[in-house]
């Protein structure tokens, strides 16, 4: 006996709500990682008022960190989190003292004037490095030679920049955008020379959790748990430790904090380093969701999402960024079920469109983000 039209309607409705529930759970799990990936962006802007346009490139660094540690040393991605945080913080320190500090700190070092002697030494050193590069390209593989050449040039430029002179004024705000954009380009091209532009991936299967209406791999659950743990630790650090409260004081009044004895320059360096460290760590966690497609140019889409999430949660609030990521994940995955019900529609293509429309609606209602007025107080 064939089922009646009413029974078919009820079955279709049950299937729709089952798919919707499953996608919302998946969105909740993914959204927590989105939020964690955006916390670094919001942290840097909140303290230094610097917009990190190269945000996605640092996520790419984290993805390759997970790939190299897993394939080369057999270290699971969840265990690679401390290593990725250290790598990210070291990168942050190098980039901050090498290029960001002279633009955001009045006491920063930078080239004011280079005499003829120093200029001649710089040109001579560059020519020596070029000859060295030519010799290496004959002896070694071209990619390896290029990587060594680039490292030497960066180090040499850094030394010339730091010891070339001093200046006392801040750089224009647009300069920080160009500098962070340059960070992204440099990282992408270095990664391309080392790993090529071919997409890579790894397979770390530790089982799945069957919830009845959806199936969650344990890798995704661990990634979400790791993101939540990092967010909680960051909250406790900002609110329960002297170092964290010192950074908050710089956010609220850097002049007053300096008068009270807070080393503002160090807080700038630490916040930038920590923000980059969080971003690189999020790259490791994101590969636990999508362990394939790891390539030097994978960060562009994540940069766009991070800016949307940061604005949604309050651009200067790391906590708002975390909750904004959860909201964005729910919108992105929940809308897929709704859009899939449209005949002839392409849900994957329309999902981002729907998410951005909902974002505009939310911002029209609450222009300052989800955590209006709460800032760094949690």
Task: Give a brief outline of the structure.
The protein has helices spanning 5-48, 55-73, 81-104, 116-139, 142-163, 173-195, 218-240, 242-252, 254-259, 264-287, 299-313, 318-340, 347-365; strands spanning 200-201, 208-210, 215-217, 292-294. By secondary structure, it is mostly helical.
Architecture overview:
Strands 1-4 form a two-stranded antiparallel sheet. It has a two-stranded antiparallel sheet with strand order 2-3. 38% of the residues are buried. It has a domain at 16-99 and 199-365: ABC transporter involved in vitamin B12 uptake, BtuC. It is mainly α. It has helices spanning 5-48, 55-73, 81-104, 116-139, 142-163, 173-195, 218-240, 242-252, 254-259, 264-287, 299-313, 318-340, 347-365; strands at 200-201, 208-210, 215-217, 292-294. The longest helix is centred in the first third of the chain and has 44 residues, at 5-48. α1 crosses α11 and α12 (318-340) packs across α13 (347-365).
Main attributes of the structure:
two-stranded antiparallel ribbon, ABC transporter involved in vitamin B12 uptake, BtuC, 13 helices, mainly alpha, single chain
Summarize model confidence as the mean pLDDT: 76
In total, the number of strands is 4
Q: Largest sheet, order of strands side by side?
A: 1-4
CATH architecture of the domain at 16-99 and 199-365: Orthogonal Bundle
Classify the fold: give the CATH topology of the domain at 16-99 and 199-365: ABC transporter involved in vitamin B12 uptake, BtuC
Largest sheet geometry: 2 strands, antiparallel
Cα Rg: 24 Å
The ordered string of helix (H) and strand (E) elements is HHHHHHEEEHHHHEHHH
Number of helices: 13
Helix content: over 70%
Shape: globular
CATH class of the domain at 16-99 and 199-365: Mainly Alpha
Bin the strand percentage. Answer: under 5%
């Amino acid at each position: 006996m064939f089922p009646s039209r009413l029974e078919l309607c009820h079955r279709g409705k049950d299937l729709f709500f089952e798919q919707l529930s499953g996608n919302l759970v998946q969105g909740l799990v993914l959204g927590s990682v989105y939020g964690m990936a955006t916390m670094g962006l919001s942290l840097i802007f909140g303290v230094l008022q610097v917009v990190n346009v190269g945000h996605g490139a640092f996520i790419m660094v984290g993805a390759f960190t997970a790939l190299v540690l897993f394939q080369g040393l057999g270290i699971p991605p969840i265990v690679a989190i401390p290593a990725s945080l250290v790598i990210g913080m070291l990168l942050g320190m190098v980039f901050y003292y090498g290029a960001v500090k002279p633009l955001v700190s009045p006491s920063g070092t930078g080239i004011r004037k280079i005499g003829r002697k120093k200029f001649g030494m710089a040109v001579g050193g560059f020519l020596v490095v070029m000859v060295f590069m030519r010799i290496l390209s004959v002896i070694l593989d071209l990619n390896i030679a290029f990587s060594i050449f680039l490292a030497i040039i960066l180090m040499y430029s850094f030394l010339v920049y730091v010891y070339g002179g001093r200046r006392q004024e801040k750089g224009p705000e647009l300069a920080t955008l160009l500098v962070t954009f340059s960070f992204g380009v440099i990282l992408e091209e270095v990664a391309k020379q080392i790993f090529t532009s071919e997409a890579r991936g790894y397979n770390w299967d530790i089982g799945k959790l069957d919830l009845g209406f959806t199936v969650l791999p344990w890798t995704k659950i661990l990634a979400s748990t790791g993101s939540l743990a990092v967010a909680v630790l960051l909250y406790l650090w900002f609110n329960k430790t002297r170092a964290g409260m010192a950074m908050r004081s710089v956010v609220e009044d850097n002049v007053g904090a300096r008068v009270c004895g807070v080393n503002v320059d160090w807080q700038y360096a630490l916040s930038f380093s920590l923000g980059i460290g969080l971003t690189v760590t999020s790259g490791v966690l994101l590969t636990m969701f999508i362990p394939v497609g790891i390539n030097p140019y994978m960060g562009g889409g994540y940069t766009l999402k991070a800016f949307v999430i940061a604005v949604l949660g309050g651009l200067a609030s790391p906590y708002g960024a975390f909750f904004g990521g959860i909201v964005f994940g729910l919108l992105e995955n929940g809308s897929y079920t709704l859009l899939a019900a449209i005949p002839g529609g392409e849900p994957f293509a329309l999902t981002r469109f729907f998410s951005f429309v909902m974002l505009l609606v939310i911002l029209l209602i609450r222009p300052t983000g989800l955590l209006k007025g709460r800032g760094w107080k949690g």
